[in-house]
Amino acid sequence: MSLPELETPAVVVDADILERNVTRVALLARERGVALRPHVKTHKIPEIAALQLAAGAVGITVATIGEAEVFVEHGATDVFVAYPVWFTAARADRLRALLDRARVAVGVDSAEAAANAGRFLSGAGVEVLVEVDSGHHRSGVLPGDVVRVAEAARGAGLRVAGAFTFPGHAYGPDAAAPAAHHEREALATAGTALRSAGFQVAVLSGGSTPSLAATEDDGATEVRPGVYVFGDAQQWELGHCAADEIALTVLATVVSAHPDRVILDAGSKVLGADRAAWATGHGRLLDHPDARLTAISEHHATVVGTGLPGLGETVRVVPNHVCTVVNLVDEVLVVRDGKVEGRWSVAARGRNS
Amino acid sequence: MSLPELETPAVVVDADILERNVTRVALLARERGVALRPHVKTHKIPEIAALQLAAGAVGITVATIGEAEVFVEHGATDVFVAYPVWFTAARADRLRALLDRARVAVGVDSAEAAANAGRFLSGAGVEVLVEVDSGHHRSGVLPGDVVRVAEAARGAGLRVAGAFTFPGHAYGPDAAAPAAHHEREALATAGTALRSAGFQVAVLSGGSTPSLAATEDDGATEVRPGVYVFGDAQQWELGHCAADEIALTVLATVVSAHPDRVILDAGSKVLGADRAAWATGHGRLLDHPDARLTAISEHHATVVGTGLPGLGETVRVVPNHVCTVVNLVDEVLVVRDGKVEGRWSVAARGRNS
Asked: Does the interface predicted TM-score (ipTM) exceed 0.85?
């Protein structure tokens, strides 16, 4: 089956490009001397995690206990839940059930959350990493508060393994280098403070595809990029991937044509609605680099550009933020050399808790 | 099980409020003398469609053949696919398979699409409505081109039943009344032109929850609102629903607290990422009307406001655009008087083609 015969919209992964992305970043991490623990929330697909682990990843990163459950079920043995999980009895039971089969670490960013986690998980063997705010100002404590939280965690019967941060402020024009600097600086500060307070610091974990190429290696012992496996329009626009490194596209059909625009049968229910303030559109077309998705609704995308295809023709849409696209579909089509060679189930789709 | 014991994030539907919304709009349509054909893309839940039909809806509206398949499977017998469907052989076969069990109409907005549909469906009994652009400038032809498209459809062996429009430009401050005027005017113009050209015009169909309350009834024979069953932050901000008419919320837990903000465990993977230029945030809290979700990522929402709940407490988030929320989850919890009374499967989730 060649691509133009597929029903659209369809989420399509180019296996060759994906494999090259997996290899490239594994080598980069090796050259830099940092462990690679890719964030699998980007793809939610066990087959891709297996490729990453085979290429040398030390384990995986997830965002939720639900994602951890899926990947442990599929064989993952070393999982970091990079999130300040608030435990309930039910959620702690779910985590405890994983500990027979995997090393599991979770995030913590307050003494209260540490005490709460300890009520359910004291002595269970779960590790915690203190989340540090390196400038994104989302969750995480300021570097000066890391020891206080770590001591609360230790006091609650949890094993403190180190610290982590997510430099989300790396997503923007010219933002990656300064954010990478903040990231490494915050981790170095946290590491020094923890060691001074008597903690053994096994892990100082940084994140993000944009900050991956940072040449400043002091601080992080591991990195947690996610998007690099697929690329997306955000990374393309920010210069963190090239067009020929984009492995995931959404095949769409032109269903309506007008002198100033064409309309595609892919909207926010398959492309996601992420649009950063600096983005030039709601997405782009891989084969028409000057085109932009100027408007999007649930099942329509309005495309403006030159030389656009006509009614009934198909295009490859590059979504703005690929992590939210994969979470919208139950499976992706795997293509190689323009032919469909299989389907992968998005096994952790919708595992938000 | 009371709500605070639920694992979060959880999508929760208040059955009493939902039922009141269904009844209120059914009565409104009856008073105005227009048929009600609710758009079920908002909820994708057969149980809710059944409530709408029981309250007097003449049929349902869907966006895709895939949605039509799910609702016909669950008993719908009168379905309008309000979309300019571009048919392939496979898609035409799927539509044809529905025609034994349901009256089905589809949209068309060009002579080329009409000819294409006719190649596969000539004489099959499917009805078409010509889509008119009433000012949203997405799909649809200008009112002056309606007859040309209708004649192409008739020439291709399709049964022309009338015209439809979606006044999407009604979504904005003070935009509903002028957009409703455009909607009714476009439908009236289309109806007159079609009748003059010898077509029997059974249906002139308008849309949208914002334009629902338009007092100008000339033009439309039916209306296709969707969001009214649930309400959302967009409708709340635009004054098209009150806080006590919001039937769907996302229960979330405060997982991180800071002097200037709290962080919830609900992000774009359960709330969606829709944010119109005029919106005051990425969503709101039902019980804290002054609070705003000022930032959102996949599993975090940053909330700013006064008197916010603390670590471990739960809140009810009102998402900006409810249609995209339901499409993210496999089921919703149904509550009445604060108790969970069941779960509904989002049977048409992800049916984008």
From this structure: yes
Query: Which of A139, A251, A300 should we substitute to test contact with B (largest number of B Cβ atoms within 10 Å)?
Result: A139
**Residues in a beta bridge with A258:** A261
Taking CA–CA distances from B293, the nearest residue in chain A reads A138
- All structural domains of chain B with their residue ranges: 3-12+234-345, 34-229
DSSP-derived pairing of the beta strands A331-336 and A10-14: parallel
Q: Which of B348, B353, B351, B340 lies closest to B10, judged by CA?
A: B340
Cis peptide before A9 (omega within 30 of 0): yes
Cα(A23)–Cα(B348) distance, rounded to whole angstroms? Answer: 38
Distance CA A330, CA A153 (A): 38
CATH of domain B3-12+234-345: 2.40.37.20
| Residues B125, B111: Cα–Cα separation, whole Å | 19
pLDDT of A300 over the 50 cut: yes
CB count, 10 Å around CB of A306?
A: 7
The residues that bridge with B339 in the sheet, in sequence order, are B2, B336
At the fourth CATH level, the homologous superfamily of domain A16-230 is Alanine racemase (3.20.20.10)
Cis peptide before B9 (omega within 30 of 0): yes
Facing A300 at nearest CB: one of B138, B265, B321: B138
Structure tokens belonging to residue A243? 């067009």
Residue B82 contacts residue B39 (beta carbons within 8 Å): yes
The distance of A58 to chain B (nearest Cα, Å) reads 24
Nearest CA in chain A to B256: A139
- Residue among B100, B101, B105 at smallest CA distance from B117: B105
Q: Which fold has domain B34-229?
A: TIM Barrel (3.20.20)
Q: Cβ contacts of residue A239 below 8 Å, gap of 6+?
A: none
The dihedral over CA atoms of B166, B171, B177, B180, expressed in degrees to the nearest 10, equals 0
Closest A-chain CA to B136 = A295
pLDDT tens profile A137-191: 999 999 999 999 999 999 999 999 999 998 888 788 888 888 888 888 899 999 9
| Separation in Å, CA of A31 to nearest CA in chain B | 30
pLDDT of residue A169: 84
